[in-house]
Design a protein that fits this description.
It contains 6 helices and 2 strands; from the N terminus they run H-H-E-E-H-H-H-H. The chain is an alpha+beta fold. It has 2 domains: 3-70, no CATH class; 75-155, no CATH class. Helix 5 packs across helix 6 (147-155).
């Protein structure tokens, strides 16, 4: 769908609800940035967005958000987004620190996706275990060293 079509749907509420009846909330964020003229000399460490500099190029990014839940206030919506990003950030931090995921050198894309899925499954299994009062890394090491603990993790049903 082109941006013009999305804008048309956003501006015409009847058309929008006719085609998308389950969507309760929608939003649009517009990011605008400018590049400075490369011929203008700027001292090192000075912010490029000084108003007196003339920009040569303006770049505009538009992001759309849709949801099936209605929000009363913008604060409520932003709070939900921040909570979601906090969960995502925590997961990526654990995957990087606990599994050293950023240094993975897998070249085959399918293999890399399979390994990422296996890491997330392992993360879910280990993080749900409360028998060992320790951090995630310690529990991962214990599962690697102690086969009885590994069996306990794998035989336990979390679903």
């Amino acid at each position: 769908m082109k941006i013009k079509d999305v804008d048309r749907y956003l501006n015409d509420k009847h058309l929008f609800h006719e085609h998308f009846p389950n969507i309760k909330s929608l939003g649009r964020i517009v990011y605008t940035s400018t590049e400075r003229d490369k011929n203008i000399m700027v001292p090192e460490g000075v912010d490029y967005r000084i108003p007196r500099f003339k920009s040569t190029k303006e770049v505009r990014y538009v992001r759309y958000f849709i949801t099936s839940k209605s929000y009363d206030t913008t604060k409520e919506y932003l709070s939900l987004i921040r909570k979601q990003w906090a969960i995502e950030s925590k997961l990526h931090y654990v995957l990087d620190v606990g599994f050293n995921e950023d240094s993975n050198k897998t070249r085959n894309m399918i293999t890399a996706q399979n390994l990422a899925t296996a890491r997330k499954i392992a993360y879910n299994i280990v993080s749900q275990d409360k028998t060992v009062k320790a951090g995630f890394k310690v529990r991962m090491r214990k599962a690697g060293w102690d086969t009885d603990y590994l069996e306990l993790l794998l035989n336990r049903s979390y679903l």
